[in-house]
């Protein structure tokens, strides 16, 4: 069931999204060689709690998981696509670091992600990160009431593959609101005309996940992280978006 949000609910989500954007920006500044992943998680949780909100992810039990997610922040390194658990690993020069954060504020969730290259990275890795971000920007430009998600997803996949990368098939964007994940689920590939039809009042988390090499992923030994099977590098960007009368409103800014 797709939940249509009122203008008042969207405004609450905007305030939560502003908290998320500020926290994600402050954590991103700390991403550099020599930093412990747990330090990033501790900072994110401290900043969220200090904003009268709480982490969406900590204690969340995804479908199929045997246990609840243990951290406030997801930190995914290199070939890890999403849901990396921040542990005692140390960021190194040349790493690709994905930060994914959820914030629960006044009864509603928002969700956002960025990917950062640490220090000197190859031109191909720079391109991977840029193309992933640009594919999200492309989606945002297309979203408006009356557009089929399949049209958006088709263009995401085409843009990514035209740039010689692959779209992950097994992970998708999703609706968001009182629940962290709601209908509809939004793959980053599809056919023109595929449902859902975007309608005013829908709030969606759009999140292209793009990899070098093959698109297949697998769950890591910890039961949370999704990683590429062929060890190809991955990038991930995400915004929470409200479909509004004249187009789209980015709530996580």
Under the CATH scheme, the architecture is Alpha-Beta Complex
**What's the count of strands?**
15
**CATH top level class name:** Alpha Beta
* CATH level-3 fold name: Creatine Amidinohydrolase
Structural class: alpha+beta
State the end-to-end distance: 27 Å
- Kindly report the spatial arrangement of strands forming the biggest sheet: 8-7-9-14-15
> How would a crystallographer describe the biggest sheet?
5 strands, antiparallel
Number of helices: 4
N to C succession of SSEs: HHEEEEEHHEEEEEEEEEE
Radius of gyration: 17 Å
Please tell me what the overall shape is: globular
Low-pLDDT parts are: none
Helix fraction?
Answer: 25-40%
CATH superfamily: Creatinase/methionine aminopeptidase superfamily
Please tell me the overall pLDDT.
97
Provide the number of structural domains. 1
Strand content: 25-35%
Give keywords:
alpha+beta; 253 residues; 5-stranded antiparallel β-sheet; 4 helices; 26% strand
Would you write up a description of this structure?
The protein has 253 residues and is α+β, with helices and mostly antiparallel strands. The protein has a single domain, classed as Alpha-Beta Complex (Creatine Amidinohydrolase). Helices cover 28% and strands 26% of the residues. The chain contains four helices and 15 strands. It has helices at residues 7-29, 37-49, 123-142, 149-162; strands spanning 54-55, 73-77, 80-82, 96-105, 108-117, 166-167, 173-175, 182-186, 203-206, 209-211, 217-219, 226-228, 234-236, 239-244, 247-250. The strands form four sheets. Strands 8-7-9-14-15 form a five-stranded antiparallel β-sheet, with helices on both faces. α3 (123-142) packs antiparallel against α4. The radius of gyration is 17 Å and the shape is globular. The two termini are 27 Å apart. The mean pLDDT is 97.
């Amino acid at each position: 069931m797709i939940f249509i949000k009122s203008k008042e609910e969207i405004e609450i989500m905007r305030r939560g999204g502003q908290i998320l954007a500020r926290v994600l920006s402050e954590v991103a500044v700390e991403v550099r060689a020599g930093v412990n992943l747990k330090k990033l998680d501790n900072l994110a949780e401290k900043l969220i709690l200090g904003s009268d909100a709480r982490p969406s992810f900590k204690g969340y039990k995804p479908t199929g998981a045997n246990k609840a997610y243990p951290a406030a922040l997801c930190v995914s390194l290199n070939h890890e696509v999403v849901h990396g658990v921040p542990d005692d690993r140390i960021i190194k020069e040349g790493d690709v670091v994905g930060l994914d954060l959820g914030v629960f504020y006044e009864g509603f969730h928002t969700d956002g992600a960025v990917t950062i290259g640490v220090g000197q990275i190859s031109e191909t890795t720079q391109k991977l990160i840029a193309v992933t971000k640009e594919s999200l920007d492309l989606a945002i430009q297309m979203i408006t009431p009356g557009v089929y998600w399949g049209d958006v997803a088709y263009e995401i996949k085409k843009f990514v593959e035209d740039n010689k990368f692959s779209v992950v098939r097994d992970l998708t964007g999703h609706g968001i609101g009182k629940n962290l994940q709601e209908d509809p689920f939004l793959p980053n590939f599809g056919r023109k005309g595929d449902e859902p039809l975007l309608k005013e009042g829908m709030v969606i988390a759009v999140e292209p996940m793009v990899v070098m090499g093959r698109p297949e992923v697998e769950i890591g030994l910890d039961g949370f992280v999704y990683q590429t099977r062929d060890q190809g590098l991955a990038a991930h960007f995400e915004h929470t978006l409200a479909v509004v009368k004249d187009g789209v409103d980015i709530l996580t800014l």
